[in-house]
Amino acid sequence: MESIFSFVSPGIFSQILVGLSRTVILFIVSSGLSLILGVLRIPNVAHGSLYMIGAFMAYTVAHLFGGGNMGFWMALVLAPLGVAALSFVAERSLFQFLYEREHLMLLLLTFAMSLVFGDLVKLVWGAEYRSVPVPQVFQGYMNLFGGLPFPIYSFFLLVMGPIIAILLWLLTNKTKIGKISRAAAVDREMVGAVGINVSWVFAIVFVIGCLLAGLGGVLVAPTVSVTLGMDHTLIIEAFLIVIMGGLGNVWGALLGALIFGLTQSLGILVWPKFGIVFPYLAVVVVLIFRPTGLLKSTW
Amino acid sequence: MLGPNGAGKTTLFNLITGVLKPDSGKVVFKGEDITGLPPYQVCRRGISRSFQVVNVFPKLSVFENVQVSVLSRQKRTWNLFTPSAKLAIAETDRILGDVGLMDIRDGTSAALSHGERKVLEIAIALGGNPEFLILDEPTAGMSPEETTRCIDLIKQLKERLGITILFCEHDMEIVFSISDRIMVMVRGSTIIEGTCDDVRCCQEVQDAYLGGSDACLM
Amino acid sequence: MNSSVFRGKLPWVIAALVVLLCFPLFLDRFYVYLTAIILLTGLCATSLNFVLGYGGVFQFHHAVFYGVGAYGTALMIIKSGLSPWLGFIVGPVAAAIVGLVIGVICIRLSKLYFGMLQISLGSLVWAIVYRWYSFTGGDDGIHGVPLPDIISSSSGSYYFTLIVTAVSMFILYRMIKSPFGSALQGIRDNPVRSEMIGVNVRLQQLLALTIAGFFGGVAGSLFVVVDNTVFPDMMFWTLSLELIIMCLLGGWLSYLGPMVGAAVIVLLRTYVSGITGYWALVLGVIMMAVIFFLPNGVLGYLDRFVKKKAGNK
Question: Domain span at residue C129?
Answer without folding.
Answer: 3-236
